[in-house]
Amino acid sequence: MDEEDGGELGAMFPTPEGKRRLLRDVVVSFVLAGKDTTSSALTWLFWLLAANPRCERRVHDEVSRSPDGDVKGMHYLHAAITEAMRLYPPVPFNGRMAVADDVLPGGAAVRAGWFANYSAYVMGRMEKLWGKDFLEFSPERWLRDGDGDGGEFVAVDAARYPVFHAGPRVCLGKEMAYMQMKTVAAAVLRRFSVDVAAPAPRMESPPAYEMTATMKMKGGLWVRLRRRE
Ligand code: HEM
After folding, report:
1. What's the pTM value of the predicted model, to 2 decimals?
2. Where does heme bind (predicted)?
């Protein structure tokens, strides 16, 4: 197959109508996969920053130091978003059906037709994986020097943090998602302070969530934006 035919994929959708449908489905799946996930993550991020003013100040310091559009170097913001999704993963549970008998790495046997499910929400709150402070919002846990000053973001294995899934079907839009979320958060926090009206920003009484395909904050997040001097 040459380029004009669309390569291997083009061979599977040989007619112009087939190609148009394929393109439509790709666009729709990108919009569906990318819209509610990133907005859910940002909603929890803004609430968590309001509940942790020390972290909010550090994000604000970082985004104020960096020029518009340069989100790559924002390690603290990257860590804060990652930490928000540890506590509130946009895709809280997920699973697969085994097509054949198999044995999982942990030794559990799975028969063909069985479902094997996991919860990124539960895994994000396991003391065994994150330590005694697992319920705290601590972006510092993702930074190499541990205190955030000039600290570099260090990712962990996807099997420990399966927020974007893992393996060959891992999220295709992960880098784009971080880019979008960091750009939006930086643009808002550089110019405004975000006063959360409801739910109250207190870690000891976290907001209720709604479990749909993505994890939404029940009732949404009510904020008042104040332009910074
Ligand atoms: C915070 C944001 C996001 C999170 C947490 C997230 C999470 C996930 C997860 C858990 C999966 C695996 C679903 C499954 O196979 O059961 C997935 C797949 C996928 N995501 Fe994302 N996603 C995010 C943003 C995005 C964005 C912005 C895009 C595109 C612009 C995107 C495109 C995709 C695509 C195309 C797949 C399917 C990959 C495949 O099956 O090979 N995602 N995502």
Report:
1. 0.92
2. 171
Summarised one tens digit per residue, pLDDT across range 139-186 is 999 998 755 466 899 999 999 999 999 999 999 999 999 999 999 999
Return the best residue to mutate from 22, 81, 171, 212 for the ligand 1 pocket (most ligand atoms within 8 A of CB).
Answer: 171
Does residue 38 line the site of ligand 1, with CB under 6 A? yes
171 appears as a binding residue in the annotation = yes
Domains and CATH numbers, the chain: 3-227 (1.10.630.10)
**Side-chain half-sphere CA neighbours of 140 within 13 A:** 13
* Residue with CA at minimum distance from ligand 1 atom 24: 34
| 22/35 Cα distance (integer angstroms) | 20
